[in-house]
Prior knowledge:
71% of the residues lie in helices and 0% in strands. It has 298 residues and is mostly helical. The chain has a domain at 128-284. The protein starts with 11 loop residues before the first helix and ends in a 14-residue tail after the last helix.
Amino acid sequence: MPSSLLPLPCSPKRLGKLLMCINIFAGTSAPFAAAFNNARLLPKPTISKAPALTNSIGLMPQLHKQQVGRLSMMSSENNNSNKSKSKKSAIAAVALGLVAFTSRTSVANAAKTAAAAAPDAAAALVLPTLPRLALVCLLPTLLGYYKSEYGVSYGYGTAMAASSYLVLSSIANASGLPLLPGIKEARSAAAILASLGTTLKNLQSLLPASLPAFHAFALFFYGTRLDLFLLYRELFLARFRAMRERIEDRAKKQGSRLKRTPFLLSCAFLYFCMMTPLLITSQICEGMSMACSGFSGG
């Protein structure tokens, strides 16, 4: 065996010094090991590139406390916002429930009133023909030959009001609650007022009980309101009269009035398309009720 691999002679004195060195080394390395373990268990700082955080271990516990506080504040804010949202949604649900309950009750009462008012007068619903409705939409639009601006103002409002009135009149006649009864035979102001009063009573019974009638009345009201507003604007506001004349001057520069025909026809077609949803509603709901048989579930 080579001499380099032979065990060195170890005296008791040398062995005692060796054990003392091992104890000293272990005592001095213990604090560093504890510090290393503590640093390894701490979370990483949010800004890892900052030298003040990476080089100083003493700031890490303080940073950890700040993060915990920040997270607790965020969770409390989220809880508060969720509570407020839940309260608002609960209030909205209660309000919608009350509205639905009252609307159903009013519709049912109105339907009973309409049935009691005319139990035997109900007839088959006969809607206006498409050519008639198209003509009603076209005639007011022809005002654009007189003033170019009238084709898209009075023409629009009058087309909506007239076409919806025809549909509303058909539904009212089929329900036994006609509009303006006896108006053709009226010869005095008292007879006209009596006819208007009967019409109002019939509408009060018909509109809550018939979705197509309500739809038609909404369009009739919209067109009538628009015409009245346009008339007021033209009579009492000079700047709108001046705007109308500027539009007319530009239209005259383009040529004769007959050149407006394609534009006016396209406007009339647009108005006709805008009132066709009323025909769909009248056919699906059969004109007489709020329950639409064309949709599943009524």
